[in-house]
TrEMBL record:
<feature type="domain" description="VOC">
    <location>
        <begin position="134"/>
        <end position="247"/>
    </location>
</feature>
<feature type="domain" description="VOC">
    <location>
        <begin position="6"/>
        <end position="117"/>
    </location>
</feature>
<dbReference type="InterPro" id="IPR004360">
    <property type="entry name" value="Glyas_Fos-R_dOase_dom"/>
</dbReference>
<dbReference type="GO" id="GO:0051213">
    <property type="term" value="F:dioxygenase activity"/>
</dbReference>
<dbReference type="InterPro" id="IPR050383">
    <property type="entry name" value="GlyoxalaseI/FosfomycinResist"/>
</dbReference>
<keyword id="KW-0408">Iron</keyword>
<keyword id="KW-0058">Aromatic hydrocarbons catabolism</keyword>
<comment type="similarity">
    <text>Belongs to the extradiol ring-cleavage dioxygenase family.</text>
</comment>
<protein>
    <submittedName>
        <fullName>Glyoxalase</fullName>
    </submittedName>
</protein>
<keyword id="KW-0479">Metal-binding</keyword>
<keyword id="KW-0223">Dioxygenase</keyword>
<keyword id="KW-0560">Oxidoreductase</keyword>
<dbReference type="Pfam" id="PF00903">
    <property type="entry name" value="Glyoxalase"/>
</dbReference>
<dbReference type="InterPro" id="IPR029068">
    <property type="entry name" value="Glyas_Bleomycin-R_OHBP_Dase"/>
</dbReference>
<dbReference type="GO" id="GO:0008198">
    <property type="term" value="F:ferrous iron binding"/>
</dbReference>
<dbReference type="InterPro" id="IPR037523">
    <property type="entry name" value="VOC_core"/>
</dbReference>
<dbReference type="InterPro" id="IPR000486">
    <property type="entry name" value="Xdiol_ring_cleave_dOase_1/2"/>
</dbReference>
């Protein structure tokens, strides 16, 4: 098993690199930290690479990059790869500051990259736009979410945090409630990606910035049930769904087995569970018709 510790970045294919770059730089508020033919690299204000844009079609997720436990040396990593039954290639051109990564495929054929060692880009100027704290999680469709969850648990060390019925699974690789999610669908395409904000004031500012851009807020702010994050969704220029959130559940101590207590939890203690039926959200209006149409596969019970 290869112990994944965090999400490093997502690579998105786009048919219009300049338009996507302008959006992620000026509206989302990421710093352009590198540029090469057909690719652009964007980092958070804290200097963490978050989004790699790559010219290509169709638009959408083309790679997920994770950080491995730094406790593994090269020999242990090679052994863990063999034990996990993963055939990986070494790549040296993944992104600036990522001199070497292992590239493999998950059970559904998504390209995953495994990185070792921290790297920070030295961008210390305040950024325009929303300027999220970090890239928080990614949700994808999966034909068999239980099988995909099994792959991420057995091969990459993820733990199951919650299920919505038998169709949407939330997985964690750290104290945070989820880093990857999988929802039942006919293929492996992305459902949404999510950026973490600081607090309610930051969410308010994000909504004002999107409103100023005449971007349609498709859903939220709403406090979800699973994860209890306050979330808001809109679309980027390519149509990818983007969530912004804060207040995600945390399990500071795995041995306790419950999420750090919060006053909005209905279960005390709030443990990982299967959520059945509606309403699931703690507060907030249901998703807009535009959100539901964007995720037709989720009808009639989008999350
Ligand atoms: Fe999400």
């Amino acid at each position: 098993m290869l112990p994944v510790k965090r999400l490093r970045f997502l690579a998105l294919a786009t048919p219009d690199l300049e338009r996507q770059l302008a959006y992620y730089r000026d509206v989302i508020g990421l710093a352009e930290v590198g540029r090469e033919r057909g690719r652009a690299f964007l980092a958070t204000e804290a200097g963490q690479l978050a989004i790699v844009l790559e010219e290509g079609s169709p638009p959408g997720l083309c790679r997920l990059a994770f950080d491995l436990s730094p406790a593994l040396d090269a020999e242990e990593t090679a052994r863990a790869l063999r034990d996990a039954g993963l055939s990986a290639e070494r790549v040296s051109d993944s992104a600036p500051g990522c001199p070497l990564a292992l590239r493999a495929r998950d059970g559904d054929g998504r390209v995953i990259e495994l990185h070792a060692g921290p790297h920070f880009h030295d961008n210390r100027q305040p950024l325009p736009g929303v300027a999220p704290l970090k890239l928080g999680h990614v949700a994808c469709h999966a034909p068999d979410p239980a099988a995909t969850a099994g792959f991420y648990a057995e091969r990459l060390g993820f733990r199951v945090s919650d299920w919505i019925e038998d169709r949407f699974v939330f997985l964690r690789c750290s104290h945070e409630h989820h880093t990857v999610n999988f929802t039942r669908g006919p293929d492996a395409r992305m459902h949404h990606l999510a950026f973490e904000l600081r607090d309610a004031a930051h969410m308010h500012r994000a909504c004002d910035i999107l409103g100023g851009q005449k971007a349609t807020v498709l859903w939220g702010p709403v406090r979800h049930g699973p994860g209890h994050n306050v979330a808001m969704y809109h679309r980027d220029p390519d149509g990818n769904a983007i969530e912004m959130f804060y207040d995600l559940d945390r399990m500071t101590d795995e041995a306790l087995g419950f999420w750090d207590p919060r006053p909005w939890h209905r279960d005390r203690p709030q443990r990982p569970k299967t959520w059945v039926g509606l309403p699931r959200d703690v507060w907030g209006l249901p998703p807009s018709q535009a959100f539901l149409e964007m995720h037709r596969l989720q009808l009639p019970d989008a999350s």
